[in-house]
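CHAIN AND CONFORMATION:

***
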Amino acid sequence: MYVIKRDGRREDVKFDKITARITKLCYGLNPDYVDAVKISQKVVAGVYPGVTTSELDELAAETAAYQSTQHPDFSKLAARIAVSNLHKNTNKVFSDNIEVFHKNVHEKTGAAAPLIADDVYEIVMQHKDELNSAIIHDRDFEYDYFGFKTLERGYLFRVNGKVVERPQQMILRVALGIHKSDIKSALETYELMSQKFFTHATPTLFNAGTPRPQLSSCFLLAMQDDSIEGIYDTLKQCACISKWAGGIGISMHNIRATNSYIRGTNGSSNGIIPCCVCLTTRLAMWTRAEVSARARSLSTWSRGTPTCSSSWICVRTTVMSCTAPRLVLRAVGA
C-alpha cells in the first residue's frame, strides 16, 4: 500500500508517520479524550493504493470533526489538521500569490481572468517586503473547524478549482482593497481582523481587492409595479445585486392579494406566494451559495399578507429546492 506525496513521489503507508503528524498537532488538548493513535487507526482504515497525503489529512480532519460531540478539543484538532494541510498546499509568500491572482487565465480558453485589481497589484509589488513580513500565518490555527471550512468553501480564492489562498492572506487582501496605498491603515486593519476584533461582511471578503470591488452588504428595494414588467424588472435588479454577493430586502406591499381582480385578463390574482417562489427560484441562477438569505416584507394591514398555513407552504416549497436561496417572509406592522 502506498501514498502519493505532495511532490509526486510514492511512499509506503506508515502508521507511525500518520500518528506522529497528528500527535504534533495535539498540543494543549485533553489527552484523556483526544488520542492520536485511535484517530490514526481510523484514518488507516480508509487508505487505498494511490491515496495522496493531502487526502489523508482531509480524512484525519473529518475523523476528528466527527468526534467533536464527545469533546470540543476534537474540533480544534480537526481545524489544525485542515489548516496545516492548506498551508502545505499553498504558497506562504503573499506577494507571490497576488502575482498569481493578477496573472490568472481561464483554464480552458486561456483568456485573461485577473482576480486582483491592477491598482492593488501595483501597491503590493511596491510594498511587498513590508506586506510579506506583516502576515502571521500561525493565526490561521485559531479558527475552529467549522469556521475554517466555511472560509475554505466559499471565501478563499481558487485557481482552476483549487484553493490557493490562506485565511491570513485573504484578510490582508481585504485590508489593502479597502485602504489601497495607505499601508499603515491597511496593516492596522489586518491586525485587528487577524486577531478577531472584528470582521467585514461577506461582500467585502469576497470582492475587496478584486477588479469588481462591490463591498456593500444590504440593498433595499420595492417592487416596481404589480405587473409582469414590474415584477421582472425588479427581479433583474435583484439578480445584478446577487451576482456580487449583496443581501436583498424587497418590499412587496403593492402586489395584489389572492383572488384580486385583474382587469387586463378578466382573471384573478394568485397572490403573493407564487410571486415569492418565482423570485426565489429565479435568483438561484445568479446567487453565490455563501450569501445570506433574502427577505420580503409585507405590512400586516396588506390584504396580500399570507396566513400561517400559506406562509408554511411558501417556506416549505423553498426549502425543498436544494439549489434555491433561503427565503424569509416578514409581516411588518403594529
Observations:
- Residues 315-325 have pLDDT under 50 and may be disordered.
- Residues 218-332 form one domain.
- The first helix runs from residue 15 to 24.
- DSSP finds 14 helices and eleven strands in the chain.
